[in-house]
Structures are given as C-alpha cells and as structure tokens.
Amino acid sequence: MMRAALALARRSLGRTWPNPAVGCVIVRDGRVIARGRTRDGGRPHAEADAIASAREPLRGATVYVTLEPCAHHGKTPPCADALIAAGVGRVVSAIEDPDPRVKGQGHAKLVAAGIAVEIGEGAAAAAEINAGFFLRVKEGRPLFHLKLASSLDGRIATASGESRWITGAAARADGHRLRSLHDAILVGSGTVGADNPDLTCRLPGLGAYSPDRIVLDSQAGMSVTLRLATTAQETPVLLFHAGAPAARVELLRHKGITVIEAPARGEGRVDVTAVARTLGELGYSSVLIEGGGQVAAAFVAAGLVDRISSYRAGVVLGDDSRSAVGPLAVDRLDFAPRFRLVSTRTVGADTLETWHRRA
Fold first, then answer.
1. How far apart are CA 357 and CA 359, in angstroms?
2. d(CA 212, CA 238)
3. What b/e string do you get for 116-153 counting C-beta neighbours within 10 Å, with b at 16 or more?
C-alpha cells in the first residue's frame, strides 16, 4: 500500500511547488477505499484529496501517506485535523516533514487523538521523491539537476556549433520526461540565442507538465521574437540579469517575462548562488539545468549541482568541438567536484547514466 502511495506522489512531481509531492492511500480490510495525491499548485493536499474521494466512511481505516500530515494552518486546514475528524484508526507515514511548521507536530497530533502512528515504511523512496523540497527547507535553495546530452568524449556540439542531434530520438524523448518531473528548467542566453528553444515538455499527454522556463542573461539581451518571449504568457519565463539597461528590462516585462536583477560575478555574469537563493525564496524545489557549457560550469563550480543525468551517444567529436561543461580551473584532482553513479540504462542507441553529488 505504501508503494501505491509512493507511485501517486511521483505522479505529482513538477506540479506541486511550493508544496511537496505526496501520495495517500486509505485502506480497510485489505481494500483500498480512497486514494489521493497533492494536486497542481500544491492544493488540495494528498490526505484531503483522498478523504474527498472516499465513497464510504473512513472510521477505523488505515492511512498510508508518503509524508507526515501537516499540522499548521496555511492556505488549507491541517491534514492531521482532517484525518482526526474522519475517524481513521491508524496512520502509516513514510517520513517526517522537515518543515519547522510541521516537523513531528502532525504525528504528535494524531497520537494525542488516539490514532496509532507508524513512521518509516518507504522512507528512502519518499525522501528521494521530495529531495528538492527537503533541500529547499534545509538550505533555502532548490535541487539542481544537470542534464547533459553529449558524445563519448563529453562534447555537446561540433566546432561549428552543430548539435542536432548528437543523441537519438529515444534519448530526446526521455529528456522531455525528465523535464516533466521538475518545477523549472534553466538555460543560459547563449543556448537561447543559438537554439531558439521552447523548453516545454512535448511528450503526448504531458504538455501540461511543462516546467517554468528560467534564463540567465546578464544584459537581458534576449530577442522578443524568440519562442520563449512569444510564449511567456502561456508558460512562465523568468529572466535573471546583472544590471541590464532599464529599456531592455521594460521591453521583456511587456512580453510577460518576469525579470529579476541579481548580483554579478566574474566577467559580469549573473551570480548563480544568488539565483539559487532567489529561486528557493520563490518556492521552486527542483530545477533542471539544460545548458550551455558555461552555465553548467558555473553551477558545478558553485557546488550547486546535486544530480546529473548524462545521455551519451556513441560518437566522438574531438578536442576542437564544444565541451558539455566549461572551464572549472581545477588544478588538482583533490579539488574536482565528485559524483557517485546511481544507475545506468540504455535509451535507444544511447546510454543514460545518473549521478548524485557525493556528500
């Protein structure tokens, strides 16, 4: 039953920020009598969604939920109170909520009401599903997931800039699946100018799961005729600059783009640490970084890359081609950022390796 609740939580990934993605299954006598998940925009919460779906009384039922029921009044009443009012007899909770407004208080409320509470079933899977939310609560920034699509020698384009397509159709489709699991997707101005991307999820049935689009553009020079600008009213676009001319800022805002000034770092580029902090304040829990090499290098150098999904094609492009990650100025191996391999699988003719940052 907890596995079913975890599956429901995964269905909500990329859709619930600033709230976590939670699944809930309610059972009596081995029968599922209600189920729910956190809905778009974070409301209703999974427990409330499940209670609303029930077609019979819940008194004495067992609740399986992937995160501790909330105990505070926000935009919705506390889920712990809703479960108490429904008269459930037992709650199996995967993991405690690190949010200080909840942290143990939801479980305590349930116990005080005479409801049996068990904690820990499915904890590892629940923590992975909401790794971004947990990180934002603890460190004030979202989880950053770097996606690379490169040759065997780590190149993303030929010397002339040709990059379509290094990886095959199956890998590109899987990349769109990855987009759908994140709150936002981030690129630099060079990628926007060179590729004129949509940065949406174009898999059948997942169009509504397109993440918000984020652009780092120090001088706010993005053309208002590009796809990101012309579709900003449909799918949000945030642009971070570092002291761009006021006329450029106003022009982009007129197109519906949210323009945010950030401090500058070396060579006048946007300070990615400040960007991370601002995105955390805005409620983003997970951000997929898709390019280019300079942006990837900036986040890696700042110690902000938590996950890497590397799609590798069986082609070699050589030293005169463009690197997936720009210069890091690493002069000793001891100082190189390190990641641990989590999984490897074949995607069409290509290989996908997933890496997590070493603690």
1. 6
2. 8
3. ebeeebbeebbbebbbbbbbbbeeebbbbbbbbbbbee
**C-alpha–C-alpha distance, residues 118 and 245, integer Å:** 57
Helix (H) or strand (E) holding 47: helix 46-53
Give the active site residues: 47
pTM over 0.90: yes
Return the sign of the alpha-carbon dihedral for residues 92, 98, 99, 103: positive
Does pLDDT of 165 surpass 90? no
Structure confidence by residue, pLDDT tens digits, 38-71: 999 999 999 999 999 998 999 999 999 999 999 9
Nearest to 20 by CA among 184, 175, 135: 135
